[in-house]
Specification:
The chain is built from 12 helices and no strands. The chain is an all-alpha fold and 348 residues long. The relative contact order is 0.08.
Amino acid sequence: MANDRRASSRNPTTQEDNAMFLDILHEAPLFGHRESRSLFGSCIYLIILASYAILAAGAPWILQPVEYLIPSLLCSCNVALLMLTGMFQQYFVNQVQKIRLQGYYSFSQKLKHVVRLPFAIMAYGTASMLLFMVWRPYFSVLPILTVQRFIMSVEAISAASFMIVFVGYVRKYNSVNSQPDVLNSLYSPLQPAALEGLRYHEAGRLSDQQMALLQYQRENLHYLSEEILRLQESLSKYETNGSSTPQVDLAHLVATRDQELRTLSAEVDQLHSELNLARSLISERDREIQHVRNTNNQYVAENERLRAILGEWSMRAAKLERALEVERVSNLELRKKVSALREQRQKS
């Protein structure tokens, strides 16, 4: 046994170590209590958007009795829809958070951006309509009713498109029959080469996945605790009734749940250690990047200093060339004067 331990310590990345958690997906049976997400709120919001689009298309005929109030009413409807969209957005964000807590990380990542787009679209549309209302007395290129109907139609179509995408993802989530994909991150700590690149290049995503897995395991612990309490109550009832056979079954179920709870606690501890390791690696890489930046700044400063010295020497060389040229001119003049004096002496 001691030799086996030494051999395992010498070869820390064997196939057995890499496959240590390969059975996690089979030992985490808690996806069975997954709750389906309701589409009632999404359908109501789609109905509201359809009514809004119908109002935008038929405003001149629907609001014909109050024709002089049509621009104000359309603007008020736009603001009201913006407020409703904000309330529905909170509801949709709550739905996405529940999906994340159920362990379906990929669904939550896809949906967390989609649920915020309808409110952004409505906000931009409302701002555009209000700007047009404010500047209408100064620029009257198009009729105000036409511009308002166009903005409302674009808002309704865009928001409805994203809501249809949201409904499609929720229906896919309700019909999925597989383990939570957040458990796949348990493989990464056992793959050193792949994990190193992932930590350095997608460190934020790795930490986010591990945080989602911790939340999922916390929900599972809570569910298992309630299940154990329920089984203990049932066991106590059977014990008071004096039945023997159900006691054995319930005791086995309680022991199984207790073992699953211990397994999940060990997984949570493992994930905490992996998360701390990832954070330490990220901080180490940040320090290396900061050191490289400081070195680069030193090189830049040294380069600037050398350029300044080179410019100074260039100026000095130019000054010396000018002085040399002046000296040559003066020498030529002196030679001419000397030759002239010699000629005068020879004549005399």
